[in-house]
Protein 1
Amino acid sequence: MRIVNRLVLLGMAAVFSGGVAAAREAKVEEPLYDQLLRECKLTEEQQAAVKEKIAALDEALAAWDKENAEKLEAAKAAVKEARSRDDEAKKKAGEDLKALAAAREAAGSGPRKAVLALLTDEQKAAWGAYELFQETVSRYRKAALTEEQLTKIRAACAVAFAEIAEAGEDSKGAREIRNRLRWGIDVLVLTPEQRESVRPVKAKGK
């Protein structure tokens, strides 16, 4: 279990300390280019090409947003309204919103692949590890993670992504790696109070 071992090796975790604070403070609106420049250390030759591809990505997403603006607003309103209704209504509203999010993601899939195609294998690995780190940290947003904890999680995500890439993104092995990553963070990184803060709230009467 290389991921778990990495979590307890504090010295090794320090290797990934650069960029952790920036990633923590980065807002959702942080431009994709800025993130790529920081995480992948783009060369001067890559920078212009990446900007061009990102412009195409932005255009594709803007076109989708314009075409689906009414649907998106209706879905958001339905989610808000469903909060005071039964579980089935909440589930349907949530699924509808997720479907729109998936459609938007698909609209930018081609341009996004074009951006990543400009990266070297090493840069792709760095970007994949960063995305896994961001995805993982979002699960613990209620835990008020410290800088030290973020550093450990980032180190674990770098190892996990390498293992996932080797196993195959959609493979059973990749799912097991993600599960071990979450287990390692829950058990070896979080405090008891933090674990309680991120524990799913049980429905009343259950």
Protein 2
Amino acid sequence: MAVQRATHIFLMSFYALLVILAIFAVPESSADYCGNVFETTANRVLLGHVIDSVLDIDEFECRLRCIGEKGCKSINIRRNGNKKNFCELNSQNRQTMPQDFRVENSSTYHGFVQVSCVDISSDKKRQRKSRLCHPGYHGERCQPDHKGLYSHHPASSCKEIRNAGHFKTDGEYWVDPEKNGNALKVFCDMTTDGGGWLLISSIVIDTAAPNQMTVVSSYRGINTSQMVLTKGAVNELRSHLGFTQIRFHCSRHPGHIFHVATAANSTGEAVVQYFSGQTDIQPNACGSFVRMDNDNSIMSRQCHQWGWENGTYKVGKWGHSRDQDRLYIYPAFVYHGQHWHTSPHGTRYCDDGGSSKTAGDFWKIYVR
């Protein structure tokens, strides 16, 4: 028992030494170096890239084999029919081959991950001072160059984050439309119609406060819940962001969904200019938008009956008001029919004229 314990302590010490050497021991002539550590993911394996395999060794020994094997970038710890560990050494990792990273219960994946990349030159004083990072990394700690993940490294827009390809899930990200270092946390829709949409107005019915709504006069208030933007705020945002599309999405029980985005044409651009306050000319409705896949509204199929202009209803136009409230007071509606309407006084319409509210009903507007 004492011999086994001593052997185990020796192996642990040896492994720790190898890790230290893997991170810090580099030749003086090396110009670029990236330190690595193992990451672990349960119930996952990387398939199709095995360069060697060993039966009945534990996770610790399998990691040691990978460290000592040239070309090994990750390992799988799997269980065979006799419930013994099966160690597989892989020539790739989940970052290089994400399509082969699969679910497999009772297995575990371990892969090398870069944790820092710095320029290591013979002039160590210059290196410590400059902290030059490997391509794809930035900052004093050489973080991955994924804009939008941190406030100190924001993107200019949700679309820029989408185009970079690092993040494809809806959620909160950091953007700096003015590029002045004053980043703002926002919600980005990365899945609808190709993604890259910035949420600029959002009302979600809450049973505790069904009429709650804040009118925001600066685009920097878009991270506020239960808010709508004024015309001036949208204009301010467009002057910095240069978005070219607006998307309206409301959903109301039982099953009313109005979901359209302005088209990539001159008629769609006229809608963007109108709601951005760049013009007071109410744009034509028909031909100015495309219906999203889940749109089931009556209103989207009656564009020729939209709007009000110069005392006349059903003129085929967007809008009802030329004032600051044009984005939320009847931006689209059919007289005595279907409406989009979110009043500060609590009235909410989504493709219907009813006034009842159900928890979860929402009205959201995005730009891209």
Protein 3
Amino acid sequence: MFGPRPANKYYKTMAGKERAVYLAIIGLLVAGTLYFAFKTDTALSPSSSPPAYDADSERHSWPIEEFITNLEVPWDMAEDSAGNFYLTERPGRVRSYTSEAKERFSVALKQVASVGESGLTGLALHPNFDENGHLYLYYSYRQSGQLYNRVSRFRLSGEELVEETYILDRLPGGSIHNGERLRFGPDGMLWVLTGDAARASLAQDPTTLAGKVLRLTENGQVPPDNPTPGWLVYSLGHRNPQGLAWHPLTEELLVTEHGETAHDEINIIKPLANYGWPRVKKCYSEDKSLAEPILCSGEETFALSGIAASGTAIWRLRNSFFFAGLRGNLLERIELR
């Protein structure tokens, strides 16, 4: 397992409609401050057949600070250069707050269909957000009674989101397993995680974008240097990936992924690698054509969600990643060597 859950005094259960956003819990480090007191100090190395990760974790006395409260199913967050935060709430709202947690505005998107785990989820700011105001959202919608997912670009005009442009449309959707995270990478490309939409076979189907890691331009086109010309897919065989972050020095991409009841994974994403789902349901396989995770939870599950790299401001943490778990509201640290 990844380690024990922290003592009750270190976390607050997020139940009902009232929510508190703990910046670290959704995979973000802000202004060098951690808002959750939990870490794991075990170094990881890729291995052809590594055992399920099993290590004790250290408890720390860092206090939890409630930064923003009274949110309804907060899902993703981004920060602009002025220190303003932009949050998504799964029922279909985008909220913005100052660095002092004062609300700037709230926008409801009527086109969002919030069913089960679907709704308004992923959010990313364009690298030139200060100049163009472009904000990207991943959300679910209904068409002819069917759930689909979409990535759209909006322009922030004052307190309104205007000029919606579809970047990816009619991605397979469902009440669970939508993936839903998106980020601009160090290469300037937009990276999108999609789930299998509860139809496991789609993860291995090359004719659909479900169950994949996608790499595209800011306008939704295939980058000329993608692994396969004309194809948005960077890797396949994913069940429900929900977090992505790049190593600040090597630019390796790490992705967190929910397993089936257990066997959660952290993977280093390689071009055109196949991560096995649903052919492999317990992390490792005798089939060496399939990629293996660098970390597997074994028979435990913490429902891995967001992940963030520590950056290089604190040099001793330069190889560290922090990931959030939705079981027990925990934050853990892993170190790559």
Protein 4
Amino acid sequence: MSTDHPPRQTLKSAALAAAARGWRVFPLRPGTTTPAVQNWQQKATSDTDKINAAWDHGPYNVGLAPCPSGLLVLDLVPANGELPPLRHRSPGIQDGADILADLTDKEGARFPVETFSVLTPGRGLHLYFTHPHGRCPQASLGADSPLGWHVAIRSADSFVPLPVSTTAEGTYEIAHDGPVRAWPDYLARKLPAAASSRTCPGRAATQQEALPLG
């Protein structure tokens, strides 16, 4: 399936808007979620000159490095016909959003709908949070997530595409354009102590190296 890329200026504007929030971004290859730079963890930047120079090369999708941006992204993955593990099988449980809703209900908390969130082309949902106490949990994907089946944690050593990025499946779109909320305590308690022990670079740190594309 072919991909109609958003205009280069639209993608660059999205990257600059993220940088204005103090978020670190880097280019993804057009129409994909594949980094267009090596060592993207170190190359991600909020420097507007570097962003302008990078996106002047072409219609690159926009990748976000959550950890150095002071963020943690909860990735609620759709099931796409896959059955949940036996321990999660109960009426109404079909995907990652249902798992989080069930966990939230058991904790007597509210589902975190007020935070900035992004709808993925696969109809999943990315919920953005500030990471707890300046500590950056290790990324946990798939069955390894301490929060449950299809509730992935994207933070250290992981990235997410930002809205207006487009793939063959569709476009990442803002679901709720609100402020980024703090990581809820009831979810922080579910993380192993070791997963919360990593310190990531602060937002004030600068990137001295340019973003070579290749």
